Amino acid sequence: MAPSLPPISSLQSLSREDQFRILATLFEPSPQLHTLMDPVLAHQSFSSYASLIDAVGGRMTALSATNSPQDKEILEGILGSHPRLGESSPAAKEHMSELSRKEQANLNKAAGEGGEAQAQAQAEKLRALNREYEEKFPGLRYVVFVNGRGRDVIMEDMRRRINRGDVEREKEETIQAMCDIAKDRAKKLQESQ
């Protein structure tokens, strides 16, 4: 079934399962995101999907500001739910949402324009950068709003962020990227309905 979004006005009246499905559509499947947002969804209404996404971003930002091991675990679970850029193994694709597959297909297609050998070399470099990033920032995953940018631009950004070495800025940028992606998804899904 293709992803879709009901009218935001119906969100509070939906079952928890349907509310969590909406969060997974916008962000990625994440039990930790469900835990974080369950009390909010039960008691708050939203005027738009953008306001819901801003609420999620605000809750994630609040988690990143605490020193609680439990909050850190929840935040890292949410941030780690996003698929790695450039992952192409069947196992990785199996755990990717339909929207992530489409977004990553555009990134992979743009990378293949320079020939198969160049595309393979870029894919390997991207995998190496993902590993380096995750070693530099344990518990985090590199997330960026691709928005039509090619692998070369994305890899330059990864290198810049790795070299910067600031874990708190990484959390901020990752939360912002996840919210930007979610807003783009919401907009496209609402336009297609």
UniProtKB/TrEMBL annotation:
Family annotation (Pfam families): OHCU_decarbox
Gene3D superfamilies: Oxo-4-hydroxy-4-carboxy-5-ureidoimidazoline decarboxylase
Organism domain of life: Eukaryota
Key word Phosphoprotein present: no
Keywords recorded for this protein, A-Z: Purine metabolism
Record-given protein name: Oxo-4-hydroxy-4-carboxy-5-ureidoimidazoline decarboxylase domain-containing protein
Annotated region (Disordered), positions in chain: 81-101
Keyword Metal-binding among record annotations: no
Domain Oxo-4-hydroxy-4-carboxy-5-ureidoimidazoline decarboxylase: 13-187
A GO biological process held by the record: purine nucleobase metabolic process
Entry-linked InterPro entries: OHCU_decarboxylase, OHCU_decarboxylase_sf
Feature: compositional bias, Basic and acidic residues: 92-101
